[in-house]
């Protein structure tokens, strides 16, 4: 792909940071946007930005578009809420943006039980704001984050994009399903390409502290019991961050499928792992046994995830390469370095 200017929302987030870094290393220009909310430790978010050459004192300045950093003028950062109906259109109007990669969202299934309004603001109003800005500024392609959570507790595995996803079991999942419907409407009405990516349990270095990989590692190191829900009778299609990034970057390039402007793809490892086996991999990487607190199923959680990734493979030659043992070791190495 020739050099482009790409707006990456959620640039201080786990996936957004890694995607931004890879785009910069490929020679593209990135306009990173994030509101740096306090859903989890903001120090981790600022540390990610520092890896992109954006120092904390720069990142804390709202609407700052002129930054000096290690990637020169190819990396800009703006602290902004996605749902800001004045600032976001102004950002689009004042920059020549080729492609939008919308990875910003209020994440977390369990947190949606505690603070539903945060999901309406970011995932619904914010996403509509992105769609409107794309329409008004003639953006030709929008790649956005959906989630495997839209499949709910489906027993039909592996999960296929053609499956019925009308029965989400968390508000988070419902907002992601809504994003897909909204994108379909805008592709149909206004003729620009939308590509939704249903992420499957992403993990790896710089991962979110509220996710299982981080929680388990931290608890085991500090001799605390880990919470094992549904008595361990869960399986997840754990997908290493590098494999996710390769898929996202591919969809940001020129697409080979011209049959439809609206597209949805699963992006996962396509090799589900039992939760207890995942814990064993962490124990082996740490050389330390976990103390397990066996608990019932949590509200809003699902029993299994399993991605059928044939569509993404066929269109973009997507091929996940990292097994859980390698991925867990990479995370633990990063964790030990970052937390000293």
Automatic annotation (TrEMBL):
Keyword Cell membrane: no
UniProt keywords, alphabetically: Lyase, NAD
Gene3D superfamilies per UniProt: NAD(P)-binding Rossmann-like Domain, UDP-galactose 4-epimerase, domain 1
This enzyme's EC code(s): 4.2.1.46
Domain NAD-dependent epimerase/dehydratase: 6-268
Record SUPFAM superfamilies: NAD(P)-binding Rossmann-fold domains
Origin superkingdom: Bacteria
A Pfam family: Epimerase
A GO term for molecular function: dTDP-glucose 4,6-dehydratase activity
Protein name (record): UDP-glucuronate 4-epimerase
Biological source species: Formosa agariphila (strain DSM 15362 / KCTC 12365 / LMG 23005 / KMM 3901 / M-2Alg 35-1)
């Amino acid at each position: 792909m020739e050099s482009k200017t790409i707006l990456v929302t959620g640039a201080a987030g786990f996936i957004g940071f890694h995607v931004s870094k890879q785009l910069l290393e490929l020679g593209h220009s990135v306009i990173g946007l994030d509101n740096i909310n306090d859903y989890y430790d903001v120090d981790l978010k600022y540390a990610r930005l520092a890896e992109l050459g954006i120092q904390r004192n720069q990142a804390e300045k709202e609407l700052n578009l002129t930054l000096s950093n290690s990637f020169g003028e190819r990396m800009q950062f703006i602290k902004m809420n996605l749902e800001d109906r004045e600032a976001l259109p102004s950002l689009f109007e004042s920059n020549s943006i080729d492609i939008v990669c919308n990875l910003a969202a209020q994440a977390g299934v369990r947190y949606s039980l505690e603070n539903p309004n945060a999901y309406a603001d970011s995932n619904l109003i914010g996403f509509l704001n992105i769609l409107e800005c794309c329409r008004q500024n003639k953006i030709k392609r929008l790649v956005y984050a959906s989630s495997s959570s839209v499949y709910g507790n489906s027993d039909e595995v592996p999960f296929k994009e053609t499956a019925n996803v009308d029965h989400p079991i968390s508000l988070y999942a419902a907002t992601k399903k809504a994003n897909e419907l909204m994108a379909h409407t805008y592709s149909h009405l206004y003729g620009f390409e939308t590509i939704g990516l249903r992420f499957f349990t992403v993990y790896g270095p710089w991962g979110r502290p509220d996710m299982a990989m981080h929680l388990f590692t931290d608890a085991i190191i500090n001799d605390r019991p880990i919470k094992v829900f549904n008595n361990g009778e869960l399986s997840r299609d754990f997908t290493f961050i590098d494999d996710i990034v390769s898929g996202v970057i591919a969809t940001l390039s020129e697409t080979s499928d011209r049959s439809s402007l609206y597209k949805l793809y699963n992006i996962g490892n396509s090799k589900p792992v039992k939760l207890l086996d995942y814990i064993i991999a962490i124990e082996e990487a740490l050389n330390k046994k976990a103390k397990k607190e066996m608990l019932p199923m949590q509200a809003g959680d699902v029993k299994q995830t399993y991605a059928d990734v044939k569509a993404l493979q066929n269109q973009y030659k997507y091929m996940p390469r990292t097994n859980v043992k390698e991925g867990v070791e990479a995370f633990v190495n990063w964790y030990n370095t970052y937390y000293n």
